[in-house]
Design goal:
five-stranded antiparallel β-sheet, 1 helix, disordered N terminus, mainly beta, Methylamine Dehydrogenase, Chain H, five-stranded mixed β-sheet
Amino acid sequence: MTSSWKFVAFGLIALAPVAGSDACPRRSRTVSVAPALDFVGAKAKSDAPLFGGTPARNMVNLVDKDIPIDWSVEEGKGKNIKWSVPLGDKSYGGPVIADGKVYVGTNNRRPRDPKVKGSRAILMCFDEATGKFLWQIAHEIPAEVTSMDALNEGLCSTPAVEGGMIYYVTPGCEVVAADTTGKVQWTYNMNKEDKVFPYHLANCSPLVAGDLVMVVTGNGTDEEGKIHTPEAPSFIAINKKTGKAMWKSNLPGKRIIEGQFSNPTLATVDGKQQVIMPGGDGVLYSFEAETGKLVWKCDCVPVRVKPGSRALDLYFVATPVVVDNRLYVAMGVAPMNAHTPPHSQFLCLDVTKKGDVSFKSYDAKDPKNKDSALVWAFGGPFDPPPEKGRQVKFGTSISTAAVHDGLVYIAEETGYMHCLDAKTGQRYWEHDFRATVWGSPYWVDGKVYIGTDDGEVIIFQHGKDRKVLATVSVDAAVHTTPVVANGVLYVQTRSHLYAISKGK
């Protein structure tokens, strides 16, 4: 297996069994979960403290305006660059911005500290105003819990910042809580405590709800496709103050196809919080955030090639987005998987359902789906196939959607972006980047930004008609999602982080 780790994904709770449940999580006590902050309009500042900006994970910023669509990173010809900083040579976890600081994960190929040698997963902290390097935390990557070719991939988790604390997951299966000075307050080792063994490496972007830190553990298979510990939890809720696990669930269990790479998402339905956990079995699990009771589950793979097999079955790498009681998520596989399915699906589900709300086909009008959560699905092969051109409507995806103003923007790993109707799934337009896409589209100020593996950022005009406003080249592949905070656009390449602002 080659090392092509590029997840951004580049983001709960105990449950009672329902019809079709094949496992029940372990549970200790309940913890109060306070309402999540509404990012939009919550503060005068427009910080971006976690992957997706808010616990709903929607890649939309309704606050910031006048964001540049033209800049240059070329040495001696810089334009609209407020500051830039070098990172390692593999930087897959995106930046977060909170309380005057910027946090980003990378590896140790460009050491900031000569005393820190060898392969390390690095969390770096910079001053938001100047880009000044403030501190770093270095973590070893134990070979026994990850593939040997993953040792130099670095920190792939996008942190979550809340209440003066930073929470993230190391490749070695540690959930870490550190303060804003870089002092680690506690570490929960999922491998030692729960025998979690990730496929390739752990990379979840945590979600904080009240007193709980929600994590998808990454438990999965080895390079031969064997699940080391099917009994190990796939989902864990940890007390953010003490670092103690409050509940654990291994619901995917023996059904895990390869690994579990997605991130938890928070929804509020009828005044109650649900935490939605995407499983490595192609099933979405929704839990009451406070009690851990399973609210609903939805198997999103109606017909499986071979249950438990690595070959061709879809699961979740992308992170679900929840808007107005609708969940939007793309299906896919790990990008290093050589058995990539020929086509995939982008789904819209109703999160107000309860129980087993799985569907029997991707046709929402199928009578067999009348009690399912499926609202619509976009994807599959063209039938009949076209004489020329592409044979599939939608390919596998690791991207998270941006949903705004009745439109959905979603990208495929194979290099296409689609604009869909949020209510019906109708496609308004498609764009071929002719390059691989690992990150997600990001909506801000009436524009949509997205990066490609060819080292370009493409900016679209928001709307039902495709209009490219600009294409900007950067120094290396963009494997993360562009993000805007406090009027500044952040673009992260494999090797650098750029803060972009007009007139700089």
